[in-house]
Design brief:
The chain is of the alpha/beta class. It is built from eight helices and six strands.
């Protein structure tokens, strides 16, 4: 049985409004902790990102930790932002999940903490298709991490040649999954990439294209 690992934000649902709301929450917390304006908090966060190794710069929790917050505090910030009214399912997501779940083992893996992740999956009616939900809280690291992909495969007793990883971030989803030797599918609905980038075995614009691959 083939294992398919789905990223959630930006793959099964539109993420822009939700990310904006979460960022506002984070900046307010930084502003409060450091006694600066929200605008200055934004600069602090950017500076913290730049101080990180390149592969971690797009993962907000690492930057927030640089500013003196614990991982738990960061997770609490994210969980405090309700996704209701901020997200919509991507066209075809219910159809593709329903069909894939008949043949394959589907799991979700996200940098989002558990409470927010489960709420999101239930809002878009995707929770019922997932045999297991893997949150960033289940691991010591965050994306990008090939070791997490390997842990998920071990937990599901799946080998790399029987595993497919689907994500919308080349850096956080595709490259670590490729390092773990899974088949990788980059979801790029907004055509950010001209052609297939290194590390992605496939690039798709519509989730329904997955059926042609697996």
């Amino acid at each position: 049985m083939k294992l398919i690992i789905f990223d959630v934000d930006g793959v099964l649902e539109t993420e822009d409004d939700l990310i904006e709301a979460r960022t506002e929450r984070i900046l307010k917390e930084i502003s409060k902790k450091h006694g600066v304006s929200v605008e200055d908090a934004k600069h602090l966060l950017q500076k913290a990102r730049r101080s990180l190794p390149e592969e971690k710069r797009k993962t907000t929790v690492y930057a927030v930790e640089k500013l003196g917050f614990t991982r738990k505090h960061y997770f609490d910030m994210i969980n405090s932002v309700s996704p209701e009214g901020l997200i919509e399912s991507y066209p075809g997501s219910d159809e593709i999940l329903r069909e894939l779940s008949k043949k394959y083992v589907l799991v979700a893996f996200s940098n989002t903490p558990k409470i927010a992740l489960v709420k999101t999956l239930k809002l878009i009616d995707a929770y019922r298709y997932m045999q297991k939900i893997y949150s960033v809280e289940d691991f010591k690291e965050s994306k990008p991490s090939s070791s997490i992909i390997k842990q998920i495969m071990d937990d599901q007793e799946s080998r790399p040649e029987n595993t497919v990883s689907i994500g919308n971030s080349l850096e956080k989803d595709i490259l670590p999954s490729k390092k773990a030797q899974t088949t990788t599918i980059l979801f790029d609905p907004n055509k950010k990439f001209n052609g297939k980038p290194d590390g992605a075995d496939y690039i798709i614009r519509d989730l329904r294209e997955i059926m042609k691959i697996v």
